[in-house]
Structures are given as C-alpha cells and as structure tokens.
Design a protein that fits this description.
about 280 residues, alpha/beta, TIM Barrel, 5-stranded parallel sheet, globular
Length: about 280
C-alpha cells in the first residue's frame, strides 16, 4: 500500500458563497484519494465590501477558523486538515492582509489576482485587453514582492477574460518580466487543475508558461481549487505529468508556511487512481 505524501493545497468552503459541501466532505475525498492532508484556502474577507458576493465577511473569519478546526479534529489520525487562506492582491490592500494573516496561525497563504471580479475590473480595465493583461501580470509580481504570500494562485487566469485577445507570443515578454521578479522573491507558483473547466480549457498556467517558470527555478504547488468535494486533487496525475514535461522533478506544498518538497515520481505513486467507477484503493 502506498504511503500518503501529497496535500490538496487549494480548497474552499461554503462561506465563499460559491462553493458547496462541508470541510469534512472535502477531507473525506482527500482520504479516499490517498492524500496525506488538505489545506483549506477559502477566499479571504476584504475591506470596504470589495467583491463581497464571492467571499466570507470579516465577521465570518472566526467561523471559518472554527469549521476547519472541527474537520481537523474529526479526521485526526486519518487526514491532516490545515488552515490556510486565499488572499486577493490589489494595490493598497497590504495593511489589511497583514493584520488578517496575523490573526490565526496559517499553513498556506495563496495570493490571487482575480481579473474577473467587477470591483477589480472597474478599477484596472480601461478598455484595452492587452493593457489589462499587462496590469494583471504586473500585479502578480507585485503580490510576490509584498512578502505576504507563499504561492501565487492560477497565474494566467487573465486569459479567460477575453480569449479572443489572448496571444501568448504577444504577452510573453511581459510574463517573462513578471516571472523574473517572482523568481527573485522565492515565492512559489501554483499549477491549478481547475483551469480545464474554464473558457480556455487548460491548466493555469499553460505549458509554455510552466517552461518559463522552470527556466527560473520557480517552485510549483499543486491545487485543484476545489469548490465541491469531488474535485479535491482532481487532475493531479495529468498535472504532474505536465510538470515533468516542463522539466520539473519535484512538487511542493506548505505547512506552517514552510515549503515541503516531494519527488514527482513518488507523489504519482502515492495517489489512489480515479477510474470510471470511482476511486480505486
């Protein structure tokens, strides 16, 4: 029997108002898949009602902490349940996040730029999609440089906002500039498997960006961005093969905000595979 090695490093709770299922259901899926643990990274509360329709309120933060703690207790000795956070970045939010991140011991803090959020778009989209793409990648690099984050989530999410305007060759110089800045910080980047369900159905980031990340030795964390329990660790096998194709040999996760590393070959062998009839043990 294989030894559990991996964590689901990106998963949500109903407090974000667009995820379904209790933390215990997500933890049960992690156990079935042969994961060592799961880190909940629900969308953080933000000041001034910023994108309030897709995240917990500031008053619900303690409820979030408590519901993850309850799942941790329920699955003790079976699945290692940890508390994390997905925290949006936009210029000026840093003081709020510094205080928020200090309220509870967090294990993994994901930094996200969400260009689809109306409050973000109204501030930074000026009618030119190519310029908006440049702002997005600049903000990703800014996020890394704040020191607030362990990992940058779904790092080419912008491509789904105007697929007809997404030209990887055109935007690549701006991506490379951002990656150079990110690499200098030591912050990891996520390979997010939920991208296959989006308008451009491929992982976030795509293979060409993964190769650029590998050239700069940027560590990669796997995340399924699970908003329903069945999506915990979905696509991990394909994602790790994509990483190998880009030249990676290791995968990472964070505990106590410290990066842990596992060989991809070992990680692949540790998972219980999904078949047409469910998960095979």
């Amino acid at each position: 029997m294989s030894v559990p090695l991996l964590y689901e490093s990106h998963s949500h709770t109903p407090l974000c108002k667009h995820a379904y299922g209790e933390p215990s259901e997500y933890a049960a899926q992690a156990e079935a898949r042969g994961l060592r643990g799961i880190i909940f990274t629900c969308h953080c509360p933000l000041p001034d009602g910023f994108s309030a329709n897709v995240r917990m309120t500031p008053e619900q933060f303690q409820e979030y902490v408590d519901m993850v703690a309850a799942a941790r207790e329920e699955f003790a000795g079976r699945v290692d349940v940890r508390l994390g956070l997905e925290s949006d970045y936009y210029p000026g939010v840093e003081p709020w996040l510094e205080k928020l991140h200090a309220r509870e011991p967090l294990h993994h803090v994901l930094g996200s730029v969400h260009p689809q959020v109306p409050d973000y778009r109204v501030q930074y989209f000026k009618g030119d999609w190519f310029a908006y793409q440049q702002v997005y990648f600049d903000h990703l690099a800014n996020a890394a440089e704040t020191g607030l984050y362990d990992t940058l989530a779904h790092p080419d999410l912008i491509k789904n906002e105007a697929p007809h305007e997404w030209n990887i060759a055109r935007i690549q110089p701006f991506i490379e500039r951002a990656l150079d800045r990110i690499a200098a910080t030591g912050v990891a980047m996520e390979l997010n498997t939920s991208g296959r369900q989006k308008t451009i159905p491929e992982f976030n980031p795509n293979p060409s960006i993964l190769r650029l990340m590998r050239e700069r030795n940027i560590p990669v964390v796997l995340g399924a961005d699970a908003h329903v329990p069945r999506r915990v660790s979905e696509g991990y096998e394909d994602a790790m093969q994509a990483l190998q194709a880009a030249g990676y040999t290791e995968i990472n996760f964070f505990l106590d905000r410290k990066r842990q590393t596992v060989a991809i070959t070992d990680a692949l062998a540790s998972l219980n595979p999904v078949t047409a009839h469910g998960i095979r043990h």
